[in-house]
Amino acid sequence: MSHVKLEWVDDVAVVTTANPPAELFDHGQIEGLVSAVEQATEKRARAMVIQSNSPLFSGGADVGLFLDKDRAGAREFLSEAMEAIWAIEDAPFPVVAAVNGLCYAAGLELALACDFIYASDDAVFSQVEALIGVTTFLGGAYRLAERCGPGIAREIVYTAGNYSAEQFAQWHIVNRVVPLADLHEEAHAVARRIARGPAVAHGVTKRMIRHALTNDSRSADSFVLDEATVVFETRDMQNAVTALLEQGARKFRANHHEIVFEGR
Q1: Going by fewer Cβ within 10 Å, which terminus of the chain is more open, N or C?
Q2: Which SUPFAM superfamilies match (predicted)?
Q3: Cβ pair 126, 165 in contact under 8 A
Q4: Using one digit for the tens of pLDDT, what is the confidence trace for 169-201?
Q5: CB 46 within 8 A of CB 194
């Protein structure tokens, strides 16, 4: 049965998806992911990890949901699925995808919605939609293009080929490749490191990058002036700048791990 489990490790929300045996993306996963982000936001999470405890991350969408749908029915279903993608992208905290095994179609699109991807050395990625005569319905083509450029994105989508984690890392789609046994530990470690940082600033950075990707650089500059300046009013910035001025750059850098960011 499809379900999504939300657990906590300090200020990190750990989301584990499950839909055995193929780990298919369906209504249960959509609702569970949206709910997990909502709960994590309410409880002021400072980072999130999305992972699977099965031998694969995702076999893609449950294509049984595609049958006997006209355009209106498809739009309704896909609008619901998009809510999960948007929830992750709009979450006010960084989200790390920890991908192992097969990561196909909607599963890859889910990973692409995250801020970055850690992959195990056994991970295999593919946008397989062309094999059944469809395109990427949850933004795979253009979210790939954001990371690797349009030419490589077209190859991935048109050929529906399988690609290793190392190849995706070379194309800047995957951030880091780690041994399978270390995947969750590594993903949780970077999430904890992020969570110890300035939460307000990280949230602004996430929104700023998304704004820049959907607008031009001049519009992004205006976003900085209108929105990013909120960090000047945070205790995190004021306390850290005060420490820097008191200690000097060299000592501050050496002792930076001692700085406590309150997330406000």
Answers
A1: N
A2: ClpP/crotonase (SSF52096)
A3: no
A4: 999 999 999 999 999 999 999 999 999 999 999
A5: yes
